[in-house]
Design a protein that fits this description.
The structure is a single chain. The protein is α+β, with helices and mostly antiparallel strands and 298 residues long. 17% of the residues lie in helices and 43% in strands. It has helices spanning 2-26, 37-40, 47-60, 162-169; strands at residues 63-76, 81-83, 87-94, 98-104, 111-118, 121-126, 131-136, 181-187, 192-201, 207-216, 221-228, 234-246, 249-259, 264-275, 293-296. The chain has a 15-stranded mixed beta sheet that branches. The chain is globular and about 110 Å long. Residues 141-150 have low confidence and may be disordered.
């Protein structure tokens, strides 16, 4: 009698638990995830088509003239981001690794500094202090801006180099051996991408990434570019937004560059842009006074 009674209790208890389990499943709120339009409209390209498109985009831009642009420089550290006022700037560049950027003061509109790159050499002119900084591109900056020291964050802005800005506008996809290029698919919640990695070798012969390009598949626009140094470490990240048609080229009207190891970020808003116009040679020559100091930068 006792065993039969216990079995019956266990039977009813087990039945109750099963019923509770199913009832709980009935009342669980199920949310249907809606895919974005961009995600649904993602185009499918072959590897060859993706690489051919990148090659054409790299060759399409010959010269660049930003007549009306706003620049914001942000010094960053591990704990603090220090933003400075948005300033007006004039930028010109060409595919021969020539670039010049003039930044003007907000009120008086005088030139605050003038950056020039010609090939592998660069100059940075500070009119107020009458100092001309000179150096060569490709030399690594030893100072790690993210170290927690007592340095003024403004010091980080001295790490800006014309070559950093040049990498923003010119893709630099010139890999001769396409076997050294990786093409992968990458998705997030809203978009689907082709991630193209251009590889090379370091001094020891190890395979390292050189540049990575993220192609958003619904528009086939390059929305992000990652730049690596000679040791394969991430040096900079460029994001491109709000593309607009300038002539026969789609060009971003808002760009951000973050160089975390150098301790700064630049945000650029573009309003008036001329692409592939002829630039006079004198555009890449600094006008200097008779007396000034020269300092070398590593």
């Amino acid at each position: 009698m006792g065993d039969w009674f216990l079995k019956k209790i266990f039977f009813y208890l087990f039945s109750f638990l099963i019923l509770l389990f199913f009832l709980e499943g009935c009342f669980v709120k199920r949310e249907r995830v809606k895919l974005s339009v961009s995600y649904k409209n993602a185009k499918t390209l072959s590897r060859d088509e993706v690489l051919s498109m990148l090659k054409e985009r790299s060759k399409s831009l010959k010269t660049l003239l930003i007549k009306k642009g706003k620049f914001r420089f942000i010094a960053i550290s591990k704990k603090v981001n220090e933003k400075y006022p948005t300033v007006r700037g004039l930028l010109i560049a060409d595919f021969k690794k020539n670039l010049r950027l003039q930044i003007f003061a907000p009120v008086v509109k005088s030139c605050v500094f003038d950056l020039l790159q010609k090939g592998d050499k660069f100059q940075i002119w500070y009119p107020k202090k009458r100092i001309l900084y000179v150096g060569s591109t490709g030399k690594e900056i030893k100072f790690n801006a993210l170290l927690e020291d007592k340095r003024d964050l403004k010091y980080n802005l001295k790490n800006i180099r014309p070559s950093h800005l040049y990498d923003i506008f010119f893709l630099g996809f010139d890999c001769k051996n396409l076997k050294d290029v990786l093409v992968e698919e990458f998705n997030d919640r809203f978009y689907r991408y082709y991630m193209v990695t251009e590889t090379g070798k370091d001094e020891s012969g190890n395979l390292i990434p050189l540049r990575e390009y993220f192609v958003e598949r619904s528009t086939l626009q390059i929305v992000k570019k990652k730049i690596f140094d000679v040791k394969g470490r991430l040096a900079g990240v460029v994001n491109y937004y709000n593309f607009k048609r300038f002539g026969d080229i789609n060009f971003p009207t808002f760009i951000s560059l973050e160089r975390e190891r150098d301790g700064y970020r630049v945000e650029i808003s573009l309003k008036e842009v001329l692409l592939n116009e002829k630039l006079p040679e004198k555009s890449f020559i600094l006008k200097l006074p008779r007396h000034y100091k020269i300092k070398k930068l590593n």
